[in-house]
Amino acid sequence: MQKRVFLVAGYNTVSLGSGRSEFNPKKENPGLAHYIQEAGRKVLERINGAEQVDESVIGNFIASRFNNQAHLAAFIPSIDEKLKYKPAVRVEGACASGGLAVMTGVKSILAGTAEVVLVLGVEVQNTVKAMYGADFLAQADYYPKRKDGHAYFFPGKFSDRAGAYAAAYGEAYMRKGLAQWYVNCVENARLCETAQEYENRNENLMEMGLLPPDGSRFVDHLNYTDCSKVSDGASALVLVSEEGLKRTGLPLNEAIELVGFAQVEDNIMEEPADPLELSTTKAAVNRALSMAGIGNEQLATVETHDCFTIAGVLATEAIGFAAKGQGAAYVAEGNTARNGTISFNTTGGLIAWGHPTGATGVHQVVTIWQQLTGQAGQAQISVPANKPYGLTVNMGGNDKTVVSMVFKQCK
Amino acid sequence: MSHLDRFKNISVIGAAGKMGSGILLLNVLHAAKLMHHGPYIGQTFVINAIDQNFERLQGVMTYLKGQLLKWAEKNIVELRKLFANRAHLIDNKDIIEAFVFEALSIVKPSINMEAAYHSSLVFEAIIEDETIKASVLKQINDNNPYEPYFLTNTSAIPIEVLNQKAQLGGRIIGCHFYNPPAVQKLIEVVELKGGHPELSKIVDGFARHMDKLIVPSFDVAGFVGNGFFMREILFAEKMYNDLRKGLGAQQALLITNKVSHELMMRPMGIFQLVDYVGIDVCVLIMNVMNTYLDEEIVSPLLTSLLEKGVRGGQHHDGSQKAGLFSYEKGRAVELYDLDADKYVPIEAPALEAEKYLSVQTKVYSWNQLSRSKYREQHLKETFENLAQEDSRGTQLLKTYMTAMKALGLQLKEDGVTASTDYVNAVMMNGFYHLYGPVNDYNF
Question: Cβ–Cβ of B92/A135 closer than 8 Å?
Answer without folding.
Answer: yes
